[in-house]
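Hi R.,

As promised on Friday, here is the backbone we talked about, encoded as structure tokens. Could you run it through your design pipeline when you get a chance and send me back a sequence?
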């Protein structure tokens, strides 16, 4: 059994409890900033869904969803890795503060565009900037987490912090959904939702100010080049980060590949659920009922995220990070076709709950592997690359699904295909994990 620097065993260290984490003032403040930021995201995303997918006057298709995701996510996939260079130089506390403050202003602009019924491309341009900043901030939050918790607390912190953020986003979606139900449908309702999100972004910016400006790092090293030169060298530094990931951090590289495959499958199933909610489970003319059904699925998936947060520390102690990751990839091979092939509401909602558990379980494991394997000076860039992989996988899933999924959302081929991808990802990840061995600190008790 390995011994930590302070003389305690890894077995004992991994038993850090949620209460231990919450006693830490700095962790609580970082968690508050994350929760408020992602609560805002949930409200903002519901406003987009209501406008793009569930508008009564529109008949959205899988291709429409894919094109929206491409517009919203792919541009950031180009600039995201370069943002990672800044994350390793700028004070991460300032990134959280200024980023959320900028989203407050952009949210107000987006609401105004909806209110005056501006051209769709102008609305998407404004919404794109909000989303791009969101990914930048999330990468910063993940890179900052090891600065406020000890190494022995990372698994528990990764179970709690990103999961609570995801649950907050789902709660924000619920708030947005309730507001959308009570407001008269139309541009004013969509604009009101966006403005609510903007105010919540402002609260997240204020929460970030409660932390010391140097708390979240990164460390400043003598001889570090000025910002202008650093930006000019971005491509070289990103290549260095990729080289570090592939050559020196094989467990992290394999974990990122596995979680990207899981994200692809989750993206496919999200599009399926949206189409089922709009056209199969409800009258296609009743867009409000479709939004209710989608809200139920999202809520259950969020409950699954919470369950994953509770059980992941225990599971990683028993199975190790690689073992729990593999189980989260194998489980959908069974329950996705078992619950999804009849295309009825209740089994699909149960599947949404289970997908929440395994999807968040894979992310908790991947986050921890990256944080424990990647050196601090590379971590911001690696998490930015991580975000890009997430975005590309999600957009690719929507594009592939758009080619084969009927408007009703009913497709045996798609469901079985997703199950097959999960199976392949599980086999490949298990093989590579056995070859590279455990990550630092990953002990099975």
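Update: got your reply. Pasting your designed sequence below so it's all in one thread:
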């Amino acid at each position: 059994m390995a011994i930590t620097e302070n003389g305690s065993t890894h077995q004992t260290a991994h038993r850090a409890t949620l209460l231990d984490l919450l006693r830490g003032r700095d962790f609580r403040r970082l968690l508050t900033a994350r929760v408020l930021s992602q609560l805002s995201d949930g409200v903002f995303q519901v406003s987009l869904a209501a406008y793009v997918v569930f508008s009564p006057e529109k008949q959205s298709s899988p291709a429409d969803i894919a094109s929206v995701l491409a517009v919203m996510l792919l541009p950031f996939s180009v600039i995201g890795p370069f943002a990672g260079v800044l994350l390793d130089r700028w004070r991460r506390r300032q990134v959280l503060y200024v980023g959320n403050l900028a989203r407050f202003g952009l949210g107000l602009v987006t609401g105004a565009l909806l209110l005056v019924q501006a051209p769709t491309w102008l609305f998407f341009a404004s919404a794109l900037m909000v989303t791009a900043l969101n990914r930048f901030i999330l990468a910063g939050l993940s890179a900052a987490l090891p600065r406020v918790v000890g190494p022995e607390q990372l698994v528990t912190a990764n179970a709690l912090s990103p999961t609570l953020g995801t649950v907050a986003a789902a709660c924000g979606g619920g708030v947005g959904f309730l507001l959308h139900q009570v407001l008269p449908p139309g541009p004013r309702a969509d604009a009101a939702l966006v403005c609510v999100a903007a105010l919540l972004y402002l609260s997240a910016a204020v929460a970030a100010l409660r932390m010391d400006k140097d708390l979240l790092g990164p460390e400043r090293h003598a001889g570090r080049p000025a910002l202008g030169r650093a930006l000019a060298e971005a491509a070289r530094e990103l290549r260095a980060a990729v080289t570090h990931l592939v050559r020196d951090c094989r467990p992290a590289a394999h974990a990122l590949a596995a979680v990207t495959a899981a994200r692809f499958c989750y993206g496919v199933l999200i599009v399926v659920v949206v189409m089922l909610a709009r056209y199969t489970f409800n009258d296609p003319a009743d867009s409000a009922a479709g939004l209710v059904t989608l809200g139920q699925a999202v809520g259950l998936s969020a409950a699954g995220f919470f369950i994953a947060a509770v059980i992941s520390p225990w599971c990683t102690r028993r199975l190790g990070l690689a073992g729990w990751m593999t189980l989260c990839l194998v489980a959908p091979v069974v329950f996705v076709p078992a619950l999804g092939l009849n295309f009825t509401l209740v089994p699909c909602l149960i599947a949404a709950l289970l997908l929440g558990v395994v999807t968040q379980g894979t992310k908790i494991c991947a986050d921890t592997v990256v944080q424990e394997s990647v050196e601090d000076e590379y971590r911001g860039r690696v998490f930015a690359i991580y975000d890009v992989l997430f975005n590309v996988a999600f957009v690719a899933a929507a594009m592939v699904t758009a080619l084969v999924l009927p408007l009703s959302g009913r497709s045996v081929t798609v469901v079985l295909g997703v199950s097959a991808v999960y199976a392949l990802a599980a086999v490949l990840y298990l093989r590579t994990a056995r070859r590279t061995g455990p990550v630092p600190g990953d002990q099975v008790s």
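One thing I noticed while checking it: The mean pLDDT is 83.

Thanks again,
M.
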